[in-house]
Amino acid sequence: MSDWRRVTEIPQDVITPGGGIGGGLPGAQPMPQRGMMFPSVSPDVIDQPAPAPQAGRGMFFSAPSSIAPSGPANIDMPNVRRIKPGFFQKGGTGQKIAEILGPALLGFAAGDNPVYGQILLERMRQKRAEADYSRERADRLADRDDERNWKANEKRYFQSGEDYWQFDPITGTSSRVADAPSAGEEYASAMGFDPDTDDYRDAIRDYILRGSGPTATGNDLLIEEARQGNREALEALRQRNRLQTRGTPTWRQQNPEPRSPRATRNAGGSGSGRRTATGPGGKKVEWDGSRWVPVN
Fold it and tell me: Domain of life of the organism in this record (predicted)?
């Protein structure tokens, strides 16, 4: 065994669960004063073998006479596998060695001056705190930059009509993500027509054009055709009635007015045969060809 290993070897009786030399044990002593940690030695003394530790003493100070159990008694569970911490993990061997050798090496570097050792420890804690703060601040700034970049490059969604579109700020392009059916397509589907058929397309046109759609126009043509047929039939009936009426004699033709005999002159009259009439005074007059004159 080398001399350095003898000096730095930590007896198992002083490594306890509390961490550090005598940590967690009742009666643990504070940090040793000058001359108690590493006494001044010369190079020729270093080459000599280290004296064996006295019975009942640790490496730097006396160990307690008795160690009281700080936890429950060990339970024998042979079937349970115990997971041991890693060398540098919390509770590992490396951490225990660092907790023991750290103050010792600092005290040695400070010339066994505990005050200066505490100052060095405080400076180291401050530097470590500053490093932790700088690292946390850099992480926060990086997270903020990442969040700002994520929001700037986040894809945006918007609705155009019945469709949903996606806009990519990185490429500056838009793409359709949801092709919703239009109102005309919903109407055609509600009518029970299959897509990509003539009836389906006609139903869409009917919904858009309403009264001017193909179905409405076809119905108007059918109605107009029926009306025109009725007009032609009515006109034919009227024509037949006209022909029948024209060939049938009227009542006047069937019942002519009786013709009275021509009035003749009285005896001694002229007997000219002119038309005669009764005047306003009851006198009889006749037409001489230009005017009515009294009958002599």
Answer: Bacteria
